Amino acid sequence: MAPIATGVAAANRELVVVGVSGDGDSLSIGLGHLCHAIRRNVRMLYVIADNGVYGLTKGQFSASADVGSRSRRGEPNLLPPIDAMLLGLSLGATFLARGFSGDKGQLVPILKAGLAHGGFALVEVISPCVQFNDHEGSTKSFGYVRQHELQEVDADFIPSREEIRGQQIPGTATEVKFHDGAAVRFRAVPPGYDPRDRRAVEAYLRDHSGHGEIVTGLLYLDESVPDLHQLNGTPEEPLWSLPYERLCPGAAELAQFQARLR
Amino acid sequence: MARPGVSVEVKPAAGARVNEFAIKLANVNGTGSASTNSLLMQAIFRMGVSVSGKNLFPSNIQGLPTWFEIRVSASGHTARASEYDLMVAMNGQTYTQDIAEVQAAGYLLYDDSWPLESEQRRPGVNFLGVPLAQLCADRFATTKERTLMKNVATAGVLVALLGLPVDEVTALLEETYSRHPRLLEDNQAALRLGYEYATTHLSCPLPFHVVKLAPPTGRILIDGNTAVALGALYAGATVAAWYPITPSTSVMDGFSRLCAQYRQGPKPDAGEGRPHDYLIVQAEDELAALSMVIGANWAGARAFTATSGPGLSLMQELLGLAYYTEVPAVVVDVQRAGPSTGMPTRVQQADILAAAHASHGDTRHIVLFPADPAECFYFMVQAFDLAERFQTPVLLLSDLEIGMNEWEVPELTWDDRYRPDRGRVLGRDELEALDHFWRYGDADAEGVTPRTLPGVSPLGGHLIRGSGHDRRADYTENPGEYQEVMDRLLRKHRAAAPHLPPPVVEAQPGADIGVITVGSCDLAVREALELIPGVRSSYLRVRGYPFAEEVGRFIEAHRLCFVVEENRDGQLRSLLQIETGAPGAKLRSVPSYGGLPLTAGWVAEQITRQLED
Ligand SMILES: Cc1ncc(C[n+]2csc(CCOP(=O)(O)OP(=O)(O)O)c2C)c(N)n1
Ligand SMILES: [Mg+2]
Predict the structure, then answer these.
(1) Is the CB of A23 within 6 Å of ligand 1?
(2) Structure confidence by residue, pLDDT tens digits, B304-317
(3) Homologous superfamily of domain range B222-410
(4) Does A172 touch chain B (CB under 8 A)?
C-alpha cells in the first residue's frame, strides 16, 4: 500500500493521502515498502491497525506479536516482535504515534495531528482483534492493553484555523508547529520527555517495552525534514495538472536533440 | 616507432569489396573499449553507409570477455553478421574462439608487442601485427592511460585499414571531448599513433573498406532505451518509478537526463532555478515501482516504469491489480535471456507469454513489440495513449539488442499538434450533469467506462478495490455481477486490437509459405528470406497484442507459417495458436534462444531444413 500511496502523493501533492493497513501488511509482506515510504518522508497519514495477528487468514501470529503471547489455540509466539515505533525511529521517521482503539479521546487528536504533519505520519493503533486475539494470554487483548498501557505522552491538537483556546498546560508543555499553522502541544508526563529528541525517545521506548508496557501517545515529531516533493524540487502545482504544452519539448527541440546523433 | 624485424604479412588485395563487410573486436570488459566502439560506428555512419554495432558483453563489471561487432552493408542488411572479415583480437582468453570466427582469407589484427606463437596462427588467415601496447607505453605515463589509449590507438589502426578519413574521425573526437582538452589531446595522439603505424607498416586500406557515400541526412544513430526515454518525455510522463536492472537501466538514466535538460533549469528571465516538472523515484523493488506508477496514474499523472525479466516477475500481482481496477500504467520490459537471473546481458524474447497474461486469474494485457529504436519512440508515446484510453496496463516489450545497441534509424519526427488521449475522464461539470456515477457502469462501445480523478469532485468519489466488484465498484461475490465486469474487460481488450500498431505485412503474390516474426528479429528474418532460393514466402511482423485480424488472415492464407522468435518454447507461436485458432501443424517454430542476436544465415538454414523435412 505504501508505494501506491507514494505514487498518488507524487502525482497530486494537494491530496490528503491516508493509508490504512494491518500489522501483517505493514510489518511482514509490506515491511520493505513501509520502511522506504518513511525514508522518503511521503506526506501522508499511515495507520497500522495492530492486532498482533493475521486476522483475515484466521489468526496466525504477525510480526508484531510479543514473545510468549499465546494464540487462541494456546501456542506461544517464539519470535521477537517488530516494534513499529522503534523501527520508525531508526529509519528517520518524522512523526510517530501510538494509540489504542479503545481510547478515542486520545486517538482522535493523534490522527488529526498526523493529517496536519508535513511528512510521513506513522500511527500504530493497538486494535485488539475480537475474533482471533482477544483472549487470555494474548498481549494484544483489550484487557491486557488496558492494564499495561502507559499514557505517557499526552498531546493536544490545535487546528490552524481555530483559535488556540484555554487548555494552558503548565510547566513542561512543549508546542510544535506544523507547516499549515496547526500546532501540537505535548504534555510530557515524565519530566523532561522531549518528543523531538530522537535518542531520548528511543531509550524511553526501549526501557518501557522491556517491562511489557505499551507506551501510547504522540511519541516523536520532527517538522524540519523536507518531504518527497521538497526533496525532488517539484512545482507547487500538482504534477498531474501541468499542461501538456509545458511538458513536451516539441518538434524543433527533437530535431535539435537529434543533431547530436548524426 | 617501427621495431626492427616486424614482418608485414598482408596479401595483395584480390579484389576490392566496398562497404560490405563485418569486423569484430574482442576485448576484456572494463578496459574502456566502449567509447572506441561507438567512435568507429559513428565514423562509418558519417560516411553515409549502413552500419550496425552489436555489443556482446558479460554481466560482471570487470575481467570477462566482451566483443563488439560492426557490420557495414551497402545493401542495407544490418542484422548481426555470422562471419568476420577482420577480427581485432585483443583478448588472449578468447583468442582460440576468435580466430576460428575469421572468414577464409580474412584478417586478424593483434598486438605484436607480444609476438604470436606459431601454433596461434591459422593457415589462410592474414595476420596484422601492431605493437599497440608498446606504442602506448612509449607515449603515455600511467597504466590507466596506457590501457585506455590502447583502445583509441587500435581505432587509429582500423581507421587506416578500413579507409576512413582520419580528419573526420579527429573531428569526431573534438566533438566528443570538446569540454575536456586534456582527454582530447590524449585521444588524438593515440589515434595518430595507431593510424600512422598502420599507414607506414601495413598496406592500407584492406581490400574490404569504406568508401564515402552521400552524408546520412535524415538518419540518426540511437539506442532503443534512449528512444523509449524520449518517448516518455514527449508523451508527457511526469512520474517514473523503477528498480535498476540490466538491460533496462539506461531507460531511466536516459529519462532523468532528458528531464534535467527539458523539464527544469533556469527560467529564461529570472535567475533562480525552475521547479522540476517530473518526479523519478528509485524504488525499493519492482513491486513498489509498479505500485507507484499505478498510484500516480490513478491520481491522473502519466507514469511509467522500466524493467527486465526478474522485475516483470515481481510486478505480477500489481499488473493484475491495475488490470482489474482499470488503472492505466505503462511498463517497459527490456527483455534479457533466461528464467530466473538467467543471462542478464544476453538477448531473448522470452517474456512474451509472461507479459500477455501477467498475473494470476483471468488477466490479459495490451503488449507492444517494437523492432528498433524508432518504433521504441513512437510506441512509447502510443503506449500512454492506449493505457489511458483503455484504462489498463500497457507493456512495451523491447529487448537488449534494441535497447542497448546503437541503431541507424530514420530521424524521429514529431507532430506538434499531438495531444495526449486521456480517455474517458469525467470532470466536475460532467459529474454534475449525471444523476449517478458508477465507476464500472456506462460502458462505451469499446467496453470502457468513465473514470474520475481523486480530488476533483466528491460526486466522482468511489472506492476502487482489487477484490470482487460490481459495476458500481461495490464489493461483490455474486457470480452474475462478477462476470459482468470480467466479460466487459475481455471485450475491452479485444476492442483495443485495431488501435495498436498494425502488423507489418509483405505479401508475395502466390506465396504459400508465411514467415512470422516479432521485434528485433526483423532484420535477420528479412535478410534470410533473400537467402532462401526458390521459396516464395510472405512476411509478417507482429507489433501488438491483442492481435489484429490481419494476423489470423495471414496464417489462413498460407499453407505453412514459420514463426521466428528468440525463446525456446515458441511463445509467440503458442499465443498465435491460442488467439487465432490456427491448427498447430500449420505453425512451425523457429526458436533461437542462445542469447545472441539472430543472424540471417541461421534463420535461412532453419527454414530450409524444415522445408526439406
Ligand atoms: C500476496 C498475498 N498473500 C497472502 C494473502 C492472504 N492474506 C490476506 S489478509 C492476510 C494477513 C493480513 O494480516 P493483517 O495485515 O495483520 O490484517 P488483519 O486481518 O489482521 O487486520 C493475508 C496473509 C494475500 N491477500 N495476498
Ligand atoms: Mg493484523
Answers:
(1) yes
(2) 999 999 999 999 99
(3) Thiamin diphosphate (ThDP)-binding fold, Pyr/PP domains (3.40.50.970)
(4) no
Please determine whether the domains at B17-209 and B222-410 fall in the same fold group of CATH: no
Q: Which amino acid is at B311?
A: G
Which CATH code is given to the segment(s) B17-209?
A: 3.40.920.10
Instruction: Please list the residues that pair with A220 across neighbouring strands.
Output: A96
List the alpha helices (DSSP H) in B456-570: 479-496, 522-531, 549-557
* Mutation probe of ligand 1 site: the residue of A21, A26, A48, A57 with most atoms within 8 A of C-beta: A57
ipTM: 0.93
Decide if domain A2-231 falls under CATH 3.40.50. Answer: yes
CB-CB under 8 Å, A9 with B238: no
pLDDT digits (tens, 9 = 90+) for B83-109: 899 999 999 999 999 999 999 999 999
pLDDT of residue A184: 58
Length of chain A in terms of residues written = 262
- Backbone φ and ψ for B422, nearest 5 degrees, come out as -90, 0
Q: C-alpha A103: how far from its chain's center?
A: 18
- Is B514 in contact with B564 (CB distance < 8 Å)? no
Query: Which three cell numbers mark B359?
Result: 498475473
Cβ A4–B294 below 8 Å, yes or no?
yes
Q: Is the CB of A56 under 6 A from ligand 1?
A: yes
pLDDT tens digits for B558-590? 999 999 999 999 999 999 999 999 999 999 999
Quickly list DSSP for A86-138. HHHHHHT-SEEEEEETT-HHHHHHHHHHHHH-SSEEEEEEE---TTTS-STT-
Q: How far is the CA of A66 from the centre of ligand 2 (A)?
A: 13
Q: Is residue B507 within 8 Å of B496, Cβ to Cβ?
A: no
A33 with B288: Cβ contact below 8 A: yes
- What percent of the residues of chain B are helix, what percent strand, and what percent coil, each to the nearest 5? 40, 20, 40
Strand order, beta sheet including B84-89: B51-56, B65-73, B20-28, B84-89, B102-111, B126-130
Residue type, A217: G
Domain ranges of chain B: 17-209, 222-410, 428-498, 504-612
Our measurement of the distance from residue B45's CA atom to the centroid of its chain's CA atoms, rounded to an integer in Å, reads 19
Widest CA span in chain A? 76
The two beta strands, B265-266 and B273-274, are: antiparallel
Q: Is the peptide bond before B591 cis (omega within 30 degrees of 0)?
A: no
pLDDT at B374: 98
* Cis-peptide, bond into residue B509, ω within 30° of zero: no
The model carries a pTM of 0.94
- Digit-by-digit pLDDT tens for chain A (262 residues) are 999 999 999 999 999 999 999 999 999 999 999 999 999 999 999 999 999 999 999 889 999 998 888 888 889 999 999 999 999 999 999 999 999 888 888 899 999 999 999 999 999 999 887 777 788 888 888 888 788 777 766 666 655 544 333 233 333 445 656 666 666 555 556 767 788 999 999 999 998 887 777 888 889 999 999 999 999 999 999 999 999 999 999 999 999 999 999 8
> What's the whole-number mean pLDDT along residues B177-182?
94
Task: Answer whether CATH 3.40.50.920 is correct for domain B504-612.
Answer: yes
Among A8, A233, A244, the residue with its CB nearest the CB of B298 is A8
Alpha-carbon distance values, B300 to B147, B294, B434 (Å)? 51, 10, 21
pLDDT at A133: 79
Plot region of B189 (φ>0 → left; ψ -120 to 50 → alpha; else → beta) = alpha
What does the DSSP 8-state code read for residue A69? Answer: -
What ranges in chain A are assigned the alpha helix state H?
2-11, 23-24, 31-40, 84-91, 104-116, 142-148, 198-210, 228-232, 244-247, 250-259
Could you report the per-residue pLDDT of B472-495, keeping only the tens digit for each?
Answer: 999 999 999 999 999 999 999 999
pLDDT at B284: 98
